From TrEMBL:
GO terms for molecular function: oxidoreductase activity. Gene3D superfamilies: FAD/NAD(P)-binding domain (3.50.50.60). Residues 15-296 form the FAD/NAD(P)-binding domain. This is Sulfide:quinone oxidoreductase.
Length: 385
């Protein structure tokens, strides 16, 4: 049966989810929890599998590969319809999505946009960590270190909203590998954050600073890097770093989806229940694509939960109501030794009620902590083994 015929036969209200990452999965799980089988759920995304991005940091170091969940398997379990293609246009008036590559269109009653951020190389002369291509370039960089060709390594967090956490993990993992191999390699981290992983609050910053110092990692905070070939100028201190290798995290910009409101950088503006500002209340956005300044998996999941509940309520599929999402950052930090579990509440872009623990206080070992997603991913990983 074609997708169009299936849609005609199935008269249930349709929730469309644009995106194939963690926010999309968390939202699908939450819609099913609160609304059961009452809606059709259509997931439109270009990717066939959901890669757990945070686990990719360890791949170049030869740890186990990041978990990859095939959307076909997820769809079978949650009764989802999959439509392959990137959403190119949101037609708010006719409530439909237009997909790339002749993917046709998807009509919806309610929409959740979870298309993530776009990654942009921040510097011409740095190797950018691409979580979906850790085998190209990055694995070679680890080999260079192991073979003694990399004695001075700089790891840079570009300014703006982004993912600072993996920069710390890369610094710690490179330093640990150099130590294991008895290789002398000076690792330097440059970031505009005022303190180590500042969004996780003061306790976390102190604990992470201690780890960095113990690993011999040099740090520059409240700093911006200017990169030339083999050289980094750190401002405002005007410190020059001569480097054998320079690694950077990507700069993130918003998805700027045609048909939806966006900030100048392409981020999608939302209210506290994740409704897209300037739409009629049936269009929501969760995760890195939103204009919320902190880009993190646990935030993406909390937003997806709030959006799913409000959307289901608006469509008359559930009576859970609309609530503000709880902005809590949770992380399992890879350190090269035992992981560290960090948590904080985010208020006005700063971390409060900071906690640091050796075991996850939120009860799950998954790298991304989502109320629905963590147990789903753990169960999936268990079946894989
Ligand atoms: C290396 C690394 C380490 C990290 N470590 C952590 C960590 O330890 N803990 C943590 O909580 N967070 C961590 N993060 C951040 C976390 O991974 C992201 O915040 C999270 O993945 C955001 O989820 P999302 O669903 O919004 O976006 P994504 O996970 O980026 O998913 C977006 C999805 O939308 C699809 N898409 C893109 N464009 C379109 C379109 N036009 N139409 C339809 N679909 C589209 C993409 O193919 C993708 O499937 C890390 C990130 C990286 C890269």
């Amino acid at each position: 049966m074609s997708a169009a015929t299936a849609a005609r036969v199935d008269q249930r209200p349709c929730v469309a989810i644009a995106g194939g990452g963690v926010a999309a999965l968390e939202a699908a799980l939450r819609v099913r929890r609160v609304a059961g089988e009452r809606p059709r759920i259509v997931v439109a995304a270009p990717n066939d599998e959901l890669v757990v991005l945070p686990e990719t940091v360890a791949e170049p170091f030869g740890w186990r590969a990041a978990l990859r969940l095939p959307w076909q398997a997820i769809a079978g379990e949650l009764d989802l319809e999959l439509r392959k293609g990137a959403v190119e246009l949101v037609d708010l008036e006719r409530r439909r999505l237009l997909l790339s590559d002749d993917g046709g269109e998807v009509g919806y009653d309610g929409l959740l946009v979870a298309t993530g951020a776009k990654r942009v190389p921040p510097y011409a002369h740095a190797t950018v960590f691409d979580p979906l291509r850790t085998d190209t370039g990055f694995a070679g960089l680890v080999r260079d270190l192991e073979q003694g060709f990399c004695r001075r390594l700089a790891i840079l967090v570009p300014p703006g909203p982004g993912w600072p956490l993996p920069a710390y993990e890369l610094a710690l993992l490179f330093a640990a590998r150099a130590h294991e191999m008895g290789i002398d390699c000076a690792v330097t981290l440059v970031t505009e954050e005022p303190a180590p992983l500042a969004i996780f609050g003061e306790r976390a910053s102190v604990a992470v600073q201690r780890l960095l110092a113990e690993s011999g990692i040099e740090t520059h905070f409240s700093a911006v890097a200017h990169v030339e070939e083999g050289r980094v100028l750190v401002q405002p201190a005007a410190t020059e770093l001569v480097c054998d290798r320079i690694v950077a995290l990507p700069r993130l910009v918003g998805p700027a989806l045609h048909g939806l409101p966006a900030t100048v950088d392409g981020w999608i503006p939302i209210d506290s229940s994740c409704r897209v500002v300037g739409t009629t209340g049936h269009v929501f956005c969760a995760g890195d694509a939103s204009a919320f300044p902190v880009k993190h998996g646990s935030i993406a999941c909390a937003q997806a939960d709030a959006a799913a509940e409000c959307l289901a309520t608006r469509l008359g599929l559930a009576h859970v109501g609309c609530h503000s999402f709880r902005a809590v950052v949770r992380a399992k930090l890879f350190t090269g030794g035992a992981p560290l579990y960090l948590e904080a509440r985010v208020i006005a872009g700063r971390g409060f009620e900071s906690t640091v623990a050796d075991t996850p206080p939120w009860g799950s070992e998954t790298k991304i902590a989502g109320e629905e997603l963590s147990s789903f991913v753990e169960r999936f990983a268990g079946q894989e083994q």
